[in-house]
């Protein structure tokens, strides 16, 4: 998956994404970081084909992503959003079954057995028949992850997946994502708010500012106080904690 | 699961009892032995009454009830609004108005009423469905109610000195009208059962559906077309009967859960039963005259709607 000279703006005014060229590293965990309004979510929408660039191309396996039919795209790419809205009650298994829709005819009925393995992967097979709303926030996020896994995608996108989770659930979800990356050889692309979380779980990071790629590289190459201070416009200090490694902290008066 | 099976058993049992009672009761009361003898060919006069008046009426009420309840359930899925029903959104009154105007200015042709009711219904949906009404449940209902009153008033304008109410009711329904309704209605109900997974899909936001490759607009239009077909078909034969499409699916959700693959068949059965009960009561309470099923449903449906709105039903269920 590749972005070549991509430009995008919502109106005629300022460019939201500007001259963006980068390659998503296959089979790795990539996190996109940057301050609010840097263009992270827009970049994600461009990668998903939900937005078309004003100029430049977004390619998937050498083809422009816009050339793929929605069903073909859904069989390669899955998304977990930060928050989900449902218009009526659904059970856990019904939610996960939606992930199997790209593989069936539009009117097909999908069996429980077909989705069980995906629920097992997120350790929620026992909750299959429960209404989604009866689960905790962390469990609900795992159900949506199972639905995305049910698409058996090559690329799994997560848009700030830990925003509404407390520290413990966020940690568990990240551990699960790392496990999936290793076991299923899935390429994972995340937009993350928490720099420390991103540094811990990612193989590669894209640091963006005002729609431009400031730096792409491994977590080690991002451990630069000047670079991060410039990107987030706050004074930043990197501290090393024994056994736990480096941590980025924001200095405030 | 047990609750669901019990609910199905109760509705089926109630249906059988109501059918038998509807055959027995009327201006002339027939006992069970009399009915049996008639069926065995020993009482031709009773058999003639049943075959000419009561049976066609029972079948028409049942199929119409099933169709209206199904149309209501599907339109609630499409509009993501538990109050959305073709009868209170003006779809059926638009159909009735077009039937009236078409009847006046057009030459008679086959399936005229059905086609005109269908076009009227589609016209109402075209006026009703836009981005704003789809997002705001109350706006949809307010615009729908306004449309309903407008078309009803237009119908009254054109029929100031004509009594049309008696031309559209279960009273005196003919076998030919019943047969058409049965064939077209059952066809529509089978299609509804096949389309039930689409109604479930619409519980997810559009953006999510697009990301799993579902053609959202196409399935929404497909379901809306079915809603108009079902409600227009009933309207063309018996006129507008309001509230079945709201009461039945909402009660169904309570008994069989929120999966449209069970809500739809259960709504079909319960809608059939409810309209049969209402029509049977209507033809008994003021003998030798009768009260139309539409009037009784309005009396029952009004309070039900008030309770549903007071309990926040208009917002649908927003989970997560």
From TrEMBL, chain A:
Keywords: ATP-binding, Nucleotide-binding. Signal peptide: none annotated. Gene3D superfamilies: P-loop containing nucleotide triphosphate hydrolases. InterPro entries: AAA+_ATPase (IPR003593), ABC_transporter-like_ATP-bd (IPR003439), ABC_transporter-like_CS (IPR017871), P-loop_NTPase (IPR027417). The keyword ATP-binding applies. It holds the Pfam family ABC_tran. GO terms for molecular function: ATP binding. The keyword Nucleotide-binding applies. Residues 1-235 form the ABC transporter domain. This is ABC transporter ATP-binding protein.
Automatic annotation (TrEMBL), chain B:
Keywords: Cell membrane, Iron, Membrane, Transmembrane, Transmembrane helix, Transport. InterPro entries: ABC_BtuC-like, ABC_transptr_permease_BtuC. It comes from the Bacteria. It is a multi-pass membrane protein. The chain crosses the membrane at residues 7-30, 58-79, 88-109, 115-131, 138-158, 178-199, 211-231, 237-256, 263-285, 291-309. Pfam families: FecCD (PF01032). Signal peptide: none annotated. CDD domains: TM_ABC_iron-siderophores_like. It is found in: Cell membrane. SUPFAM superfamilies: ABC transporter involved in vitamin B12 uptake, BtuC (SSF81345). Its main location: membrane. Belongs to the binding-protein-dependent transport system permease family. FecCD subfamily. Part of the binding-protein-dependent transport system for heme-iron. Responsible for the translocation of the substrate across the membrane. This is Probable heme-iron transport system permease protein IsdF. It comes from Secundilactobacillus hailunensis. The lineage of its organism: Bacteria, Bacillati, Bacillota, Bacilli, Lactobacillales.
């Amino acid at each position: 998956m590749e972005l070549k000279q991509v430009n995008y703006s919502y109106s005629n005014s300022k460019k939201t994404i500007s001259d963006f060229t980068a390659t998503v590293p296959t089979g790795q965990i990539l996190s996109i970081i940057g301050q609010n309004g840097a263009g992270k979510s827009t970049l994600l929408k461009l990668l998903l084909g939900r937005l078309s660039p004003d100029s430049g191309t977004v390619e998937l396996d050498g083809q422009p992503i816009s050339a793929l039919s929605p069903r073909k795209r859904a069989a390669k790419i899955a998304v977990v959003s930060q928050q989900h809205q449902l218009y009526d009650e659904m059970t856990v298994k019904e939610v996960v079954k939606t992930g199997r829709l790209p593989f069936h005819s539009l009117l097909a009925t999908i069996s429980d057995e077909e989705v069980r393995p995906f629920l097992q992967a997120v350790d929620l097979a026992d909750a299959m028949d429960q209404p989604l709303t009866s689960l905790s926030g962390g469990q609900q996020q795992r159900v949506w992850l199972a639905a995305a896994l049910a698409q058996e995608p090559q690329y799994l996108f997560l848009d700030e997946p830990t925003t509404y989770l407390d520290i413990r659930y966020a940690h568990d979800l990240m551990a699960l994502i790392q496990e999936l990356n290793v076991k299923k050889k899935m390429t994972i692309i995340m937009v993350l708010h928490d720099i420390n979380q991103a540094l811990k779980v990612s193989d590669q990071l894209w640091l963006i500012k005002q729609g431009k790629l400031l730096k792409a590289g491994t977590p080690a190459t991002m451990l630069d106080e000047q670079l991060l201070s410039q990107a987030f416009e706050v004074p930043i200090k990197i501290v090393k904690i024994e056994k736990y490694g480096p941590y980025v902290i924001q200095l405030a008066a | 699961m047990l609750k669901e099976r019990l609910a199905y058993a109760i509705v089926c049992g109630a249906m059988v009892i109501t059918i038998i009672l509807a055959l027995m009761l009327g201006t002339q009361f027939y006992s069970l032995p009399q009915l049996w003898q008639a069926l065995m060919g020993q009482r031709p006069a009773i058999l003639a009454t049943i075959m000419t008046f009561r049976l066609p009426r029972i079948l028409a009420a049942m199929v119409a009830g099933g169709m209206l309840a199904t149309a209501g359930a599907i339109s609630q899925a499409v509009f993501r609004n538990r109050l959305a029903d073709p009868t209170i959104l003006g779809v059926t009154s638009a159909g009735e108005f077009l039937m009236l105007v078409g009847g006046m200015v057009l030459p008679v042709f086959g399936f005229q009423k059905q086609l005109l009711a269908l076009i009227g219904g589609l016209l109402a949906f075209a006026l009703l469905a836009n981005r704003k009404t789809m997002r705001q449940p109350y706006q949809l209902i307010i615009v729908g109610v306004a449309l309903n009153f407008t078309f009803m008033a237009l119908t009254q304008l054109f029929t100031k000195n004509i009594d049309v109410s008696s031309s559209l009711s279960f009273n005196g329904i003919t076998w030919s009208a019943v047969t058409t309704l049965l064939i077209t209605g059952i066809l529509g109900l089978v299609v509804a059962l096949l389309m039930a997974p689409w109604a479930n899909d619409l519980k997810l936001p559009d953006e999510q559906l697009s990301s799993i490759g579902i053609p959202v607009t196409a399935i929404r239009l497909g379901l809306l077309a079915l809603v108009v077909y079902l409600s227009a078909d009933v309207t063309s034969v018996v006129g507008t009967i309001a509230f079945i499409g709201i009461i039945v699916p909402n009660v169904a959700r309570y008994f069989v859960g929120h999966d449209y693959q069970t809500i739809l068949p259960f709504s079909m059965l319960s809608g059939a039963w409810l309209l049969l009960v209402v029509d049977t009561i209507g033809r008994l309470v003021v003998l030798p005259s009768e009260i139309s099923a539409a009037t009784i449903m309005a009396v029952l449906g009004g309070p039900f709607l008030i309770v549903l709105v007071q309990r926040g039903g208009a917002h649908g269920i927003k989970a997560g």
